Amino acid sequence: MKTTKPYEALDFGFDRTQLFKEFNQPQINRSTALQATMNWVKTNQIKLNLSEIIALSEKFVIYIEEGKTNWMKETEQYIQDKLQDTDGVLID
C-alpha cells in the first residue's frame, strides 16, 4: 500500500497549495454557513431546533459553494408555515 505525505511535507507549488485549500476550504465553508444561519435566525427572531439549524446551514453551504438559490423560497415557506403552527414563537 502506497503512503502519501501530509500536505505540510510536500514541496511548495501548486500541489501543496491545492491540497491545503482542499483540506481547509470545506471547514471554512461550513463555519461560514453556520454563522450565516445563526445571523439569519437572530435577525428574523425565529426559533429553530438543532436539526433545522443544521439543515439550513447545509443550504447555505450549497449557496457558498455553488451559488444556487433555488432552495430559498422553499425554505422561507417552511419557516412561515412553522411560525403559523407555533403562533409566531420567537427567540428570547
Q: Could you characterize the architecture of this molecule?
A:
The protein is mainly alpha-helical and 92 residues long. The protein has one domain. The protein has helices spanning 14-44, 50-66, 72-85. Helix 1 (14-44) crosses helix 2 (50-66). The longest helix has 31 residues, at 14-44. The radius of gyration is 19 Å and the shape is elongated. The N and C termini lie far apart (56 Å). The mean pLDDT is 82.
β-strand percent reads under 5%
The whole-angstrom Rg is: 19 Å
- The SSE string, one letter per element, is HHH
How many structural domains?
Answer: 1
| Overall average pLDDT | 82
Straight-line distance between termini: 56 Å
Care to count the β-strands? 0
Based on the model shown, name its key terms.
92 residues; mainly alpha; 3 helices
What order do the helices and strands come in, and which of them pair?
Elements: H1 14-44, H2 50-66, H3 72-85
Helix pairs in contact: 1-2
